[in-house]
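Project standup — Tuesday

K.O.: blocked on the structure for the chain from last sprint. Re-posting the sequence here as requested.
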Amino acid sequence: MRRSYVLRRSRAADWARICGGLAVPVLVLAAIGTRVSLVPTAALVPVLTVGFLLGLAAPGVAIYALTDVWKNGATGGGAAIAGIVYALPTHVLLGLIAAAAITYPRLTDVSTNLAEPPEFIAAASQQRSPAGESLAQQQDAYPDIITRFYPMPLGDVYAAAREIIEGRGWTITRDSRPTVMPEASPESEDAPAGETEEILRALARKSVMTQSRGTPLPPGAEASGDRPLPNVGGQAIIEATAPTLVFGFPDDVVIRMRGSFESTDVDMRSASRSGQHDLGQNARRIRWFFGRLDAALQLDPDARSSSGLASFGR
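H.V.: unblocked you, prediction finished:
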C-alpha cells in the first residue's frame, strides 16, 4: 500500500505576503486620505507608522518562512517572496527619508530674513522665530535663501504672489493687502498743482493695471471713476497652509512684501507644524515660490545676477 505525504504549508509565508501587500495601500490611504479629509491630521502619523511597520515586518517574516521551506520542505516560498516584493516601495521610501535626514540640517523653520523673520499670526500652531544654533545651521546650509528685491511696485508683486499661492492650492489663512500710501498729495508744497494732478491721474491709471492682474477692488469701489490709488507704499502679508508633497503634512507659510511705487522687498518663512526635521522641505518650498515669482514678474535671471537685485537682495 502506497503512503501519501501531505505537504505542510508555511503560515509565515502567508503572513509575509499579507504584511507586504498591506504596507503600500496603508501609506497611499494616508497620503490621499489627508488631502480629501478622510484621514484626520492627528491620525496621519499613526497611520503612517502602521504602514511602515508592515513594510519592515514583511521581509523578516518572509526570511523565516523561506528558512522553514528550505529546512522542512514546507510550501509557501512564492508567497514569502511576494511579501518581500510588495514591501519594496516602503523600503525605498524609508531610504529616501534617511538620506534626506542625513543630507539636510535638522531644521523645522526656514526664513529669508533671520534678523526680522515674518511673524505667524493666523497659523494653527504659533511658530517661534528660529534662534541660536538653528540660525547658524540655516546660514551654512541655505546661503541663497535671503530677502529678495524686485524693482517693481508693491501692488504688482502682491498680485503675482497671491496668484501663485492660489494656483498651488495652498489655503490662505490671512491676507493683509497692500496699504494705499500715495507719494504726492494736492497739498504738497514742493509740486505745482498741475503737476500733482497729473501724478495722481497717472497713479490712478497704474492702479487700474494693478487691479487687472488679480487684486480685487475694495468694497464700495465703482467700476470707473472711483478706483483706489495704486499701492505705492506700505506692506502686504499673506499667510497660508501648505501641505507637503507626498503625505500632505500641513506646514505654515507667511510671505511679507514691503515696498513702494518703484521697488518691493519680499521675505518668506516656511515652518513645519510637526516633527523635528523637515527633510529640506521648507527650503525647497521657498526656492520653488521665488522661482515662480521671478517667472511671473518676467525678470531675466542673468540681469538679476549681474545687478544683484532679485537673486542677492539689496
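K.O.: great, moving the ticket to review. Residues 181-197, 199-232, 303-314 have pLDDT under 50 and may be disordered. Helices lie at 11-35, 41-72, 77-103, 133-141, 154-168, 193-212, 281-296, 301-307.
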